[in-house]
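Let us practice reading a record.
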Amino acid sequence: MAHSVTANGNAQLDTAQKKFGSASGLFDGTGDYLTIPDSADFYFTGDFSIDFQIRFNVETGAQVIYSQSADANNEANLYTNGSGRIYFTVVSAASAILSFYTTFSPSANTWYHIELVRNSNTWYIFIDGVAGSLTLDAGSYSISYPDYAGTVYIGKQGSSTNNVNGWLDEFRVSNTARHTANFTAPSAAYTTDANTKLLLHMDGADTSTEFLDASTGSASPSASLSPSPSSSESASISLSPSSSISPSPSSSISSSPSSSQSPSSSESPSPSASVSPSSSLSPSSSESQSPSSSVSPSPSSSQSPSSSPSSSQSPSSSISPSPSSSESVSESSSVSPSPAEYVDFYSTTGNTYTDKYSNTNNTYIYKYRNWY
């Protein structure tokens, strides 16, 4: 299920610069960022990868590319420090339980592919497909990753600013280690797969603020609608007198006799309360500039999309469209609909549909109309 992405500040699509596709995300370094509600997809209990294309307008000061934050004392940040390093830092209960870096001195107006990977307790930062030599700055590589239950930020630090000044493209989060050895940097846009938990192609009209998630890795609703006008499959559905199914003339439903449609619940984690910062992210290097933690915004509340089919189909009932013959509807003698009830039967191949209903004398009337 795709995540909801909100553009903040002046974050927008820019067709003048892009690595792939029609555009990229433009962030001007002053209040521009994206937010995504908390989700289990960002609770990295095992292997994971975060990768993206980035082009800096200027590369000075700390610029946080990915952050998930409950508050200043509980957040993870992937960032460049403006002094030749790229860091990944995990802070829990005001303690840096993991902080490491590799060297990275990007040039302005040049695209780079960056990939952070965890494979068991081995970590990687790849730059254009080449693994950097890592230096552990604090904590341990064998951490249990915290469940932050906080908003995900792209382009800024969750608890502060430290905004990206440049462009981002093909931003992807995966629940697998995409690479554990050097590789050729991507030469085309990604396609989603079961391990893709977030995928932002950042394509669209110039200056648009609509950033769409193209991932399909998250759990989808259990109900399945299968319109197939050309299919020869038939399904049998027995309608009880107290129920009705009325699809619109422009669609068809092909239901399996052994399955029912039921709404599935969607995740709705609630963000944790904001705690006023008592410590800051400080990688121990004399030349490093770490993100400030002087501001501790409360994470935005999570959005909980849901899919809820309006009715369930009883497995014993029957609708039997046939591609090569006209519709036939058989009525069980035990079914005696009340005067107010009706059922629409549709033919996908005969270009007609039938409305069957009962009048006050409990007799049946059939109407045939042209298919729209």
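A brief commentary: The two ends are 31 Å apart (CA to CA).
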